[in-house]
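Q&A FORM
Asked by: J.P.
Topic: structure of Adenosylmethionine-8-amino-7-oxononanoate aminotransferase

PROVIDED:
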Amino acid sequence: MSPAERDLLALGPSSGPPGADGGAAAELLALDRAHVWHPYGPMPGRNEPYLVESAEGVRLRLAGGRELIDGMSSWWAAIHGYRHPALDAALADQAGRMSHVMFGGLTHEPAVRLATDLAGLAPAGLEHVFLCDSGSISVEVAIKMALQAQRALGRPQRQRLATWRGGYHGDTFHPMSVCDPVGGMHSLWTGVLPRQVFAGPPPAAWDESYATALTDMIERHAHEIAAVIVEPVVQGAGGMRFHHPEYLRVLREATAAHGVFLIFDEIATGFGRTGRFFGADHAGVSPDIMCLGKALTGGYLTLAATLCTSAVAEAISAGEGGGLAHGPTFMGNPLACAVARASLSLLRDGGWAQRVPMIEKGLRDGLEPLRGARGVADVRVLGAIGVVQLDHDVDVAKATAAAVAEGVWLRPFRDLIYTMPPFVTGDADVARIAAGIASAAAAG
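REPLIED BY: S.T.
REPLY: Here is the structure written out as tokens.
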């Protein structure tokens, strides 16, 4: 065991007080190590995970009583925090009616109302909603929509996808093929995944030559690509980079000119995270297909949605398949739809529009002093997103332990220490998150 791992374990949940609680925690962690495979890691894991007993507001309570401010919104989903009364009530009320019913041949009010709500909130033209299980599956559905529509329109040779470097779209196979092919986490699958068309990564500032290169790429490959897929304004797990929104306009104009569909993956950027309701709103453009997930239910249950225009839906429906060839078992789950509607209701109240700029200011104030510090390559903030990029890969164990010592939960990766806190995070807690990032950067 490395010194860094010993430091991490010393701060972990098993360091709680002795007695029944400590014994129960130790038993759970032993069972976890024996049976539970955690994401992006080996079996068993290299580092002992922190054992969470409960969560409320913006705090995670660990075994032993230690509390941590959640700087990650549970992978960007818990935007309203934990145990929110409105979301709890929606979940309990729906559970008293029905928890699930198959969506083939049946429908129900939570799904119908949610689809109507999403169509009303989405960029213009996105009128049709396919409800699915998770963000990655919503991307699979979007790709399937584009391929089926092109085939139905008499262009079956258009089977490839185009995107730009630095993106991330999920861990299932077709989404992996449009993640960054070299720097992404899916390079292991090179030679197995479909080969797609990639432009260079989008610059943070406007670059006329890059815009021209995007247009040229689409024109040059229009005969073989079904769609262009990008994350608007913010590239998430591919590197937490921000880009100029005007590139979205360039993509919209070029794809429309050549009969190529435009897909916006708003799984990370949707529902206010960037300071606008959707990332697309920064550019004032509408895609043909849009993917939503993560914060859709406020972090309560897994649910995603793929929205499309009438033109896409009509092409697919008139095609040889007679409809979209997809149908998850838990599609339109009533519990998830009910809590998603409650989450959207909270967002419609508009409080996020005041809180996100305040979080942005707090993160700027707290993180800008790190610019130029030893080991720091860049600092960037947009909306409720704060990123410190190091000039080396993070020592995840040491960085995590340093943040925990500050009372903050972070999940660094590659060369990045970042935060996406819940929108209800107060100013003092935002300052503590920034302090946790500073400590993590110094330690990692």
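FOLLOW-UP: The first strand starts at residue 52 and ends at 56.
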